[in-house]
Amino acid sequence: MNKFARILIALVVTITPLSAVTPAQAETCQEAITLWPGSPYERSFPRVCGEEARSALWNTQLGPYLDQYSAAAAQWFTAQAEAEQARRAAEEAARVAAAAAADAANCVSTSVIFPGTKWEMTFPGVCTAIGIAGRSLQIQTYSENVAVQQAAEAAAAAANQPLPPNSIDCNLELWRNAAQCINQNNGTTPLPIVPPLPTFNANSQPMVNPDGTINCAQADNAITTTCMNLFKPSANGTLDCTRGELKNLPACVNGTAPGGPNAPPPPTNVSAPTSNVPATTGGIVAQPSSPSSQNNSAPSSTQVASEKVKQNKEDLFPDADGEEEDPAANLTVTYSKSLARYIVKVDSNLAEESLVIRGVKKGAKSLKFTLNTDEDGVAGVKTKTKLSGFTLTLYFGSTKLDSVKVS
């Protein structure tokens, strides 16, 4: 054993204060030492005092034992560390295998849609979160395609003419603002036969637009609450293409909806035949409407009088400056089995503001989500992160708005 190692071990020696004893009692003592505790090479050496006793201990017991077993003890401790590392790796492998087995056992049964009709289709049962989400998207796409066919057949039947192989249905909200549908007669003649619009693949659309808004033309986004709320005005025949969330829809890209690239002045004498096609999952189908025509004659005296009454009533409206509200919001967290994701949603009175959600859980790293509300104060995010057991808290700056614990 080298001299340096011996000096280090000797540092444990305790010097008895000379002021507490007489000169005859003042001796240098070697405290008790235990080498390599917990190993097969563990050995204890007693406390000794006096130079002669200390030298004897080092020369006859402690020194020779260190020289003989130092290398073996080092190898034993290294083997123990490697064994512990292997044990932890085995535990992690077992955890991953158990998670994979649980995911494989997460299954949905066979599903039959449009039963008893010519569009009946059977979708087989699938397992795993990815498989379930994929099948959900297949069912959504197939349902939307059937809706287009049903609407086209209904329009052809109403016009008492055979269904052409290539046509579009102007009763569908996504297409009724297209130029082919707007430039029709007043509904007394059949729908025109037109070539289909350019191919539109909702699955290839990006999740988020360059300006950070959600892209409602993307298949997964289309069924979210945010996009469905934006689609609601379509029941009244309006589709605001100036909104970033809607600008990628076919009616905005290829048609003449407000804000679209080819928007002409509002047409006159425009209508579409009735359709009894129900709304489908993920798709947007216009509600049935009755043929009608618009009257473009000058306003009558009755209309003028009515408008004057309305103006007089407005003069009677009371003045009000409005009451300022403190920032407020409601935070909700749900789990979507079809998307295999947690849906975090915020409803607030803060329009176009940045909010922060922080999540904490004992024994886990904290989480942070940054959201931007739309003009209605709504924001949201989908995440694969397992939020069970986390407490999520919503902040506007340093102001705490809401908090929820995910079960």
Q: Topology, pairings included?
A:
Layout: H1 3-9, E1 14-15, E2 28-30, E3 33-35, E4 43-45, E5 48-49, H2 51-105, E6 107-108, E7 111-113, E8 121-123, E9 126-127, H3 129-158, H4 173-176, H5 179-182, H6 219-222, H7 225-231, H8 250-253, H9 301-315, E10 329-336, E11 341-348, E12 354-360, E13 367-372, E14 378-383, E15 391-396, E16 399-405
Antiparallel strand pairs: 1-2, 2-5, 3-4, 6-9, 7-8, 10-11, 11-14, 12-13, 12-15, 15-16
Short account of what is shown:
By secondary structure, the protein is α+β, with helices and mostly antiparallel strands. It contains nine helices and 16 strands. Among the domains are: about 90 residues, no CATH class; about 120 residues, no CATH class; about 80 residues, Immunoglobulin-like, CATH 2.60.40.10.
Describe this structure in words.
The chain is α+β, with helices and mostly antiparallel strands and about 400 residues long. Among the domains are: about 5-90, no CATH class; about 120-190 and about 205-255, no CATH class; about 330-405, Immunoglobulins (Immunoglobulin-like). It is built from nine helices and 16 strands. The chain has helices at about 5-10, 50-105, 130-160, 175, 180, 220, 225-230, 250-255, 300-315; strands spanning about 15, 30, 35, 45, 50, 105-110, 110-115, 120-125, 125, 330-335, 340-350, 355-360, 365-370, 380-385, 390-395, 400-405. The strands form six sheets. The protein has a four-stranded antiparallel sheet with strand order 13-12-15-16, with no helix packed on it. It has a three-stranded antiparallel sheet with strand order 1-2-5, with helices on one face. A three-stranded antiparallel sheet has the order 10-11-14, with no helix packed on it. The longest helix is centred in the N-terminal third of the chain and has 55 residues, at about 50-105. It starts with a helix and ends with a strand.
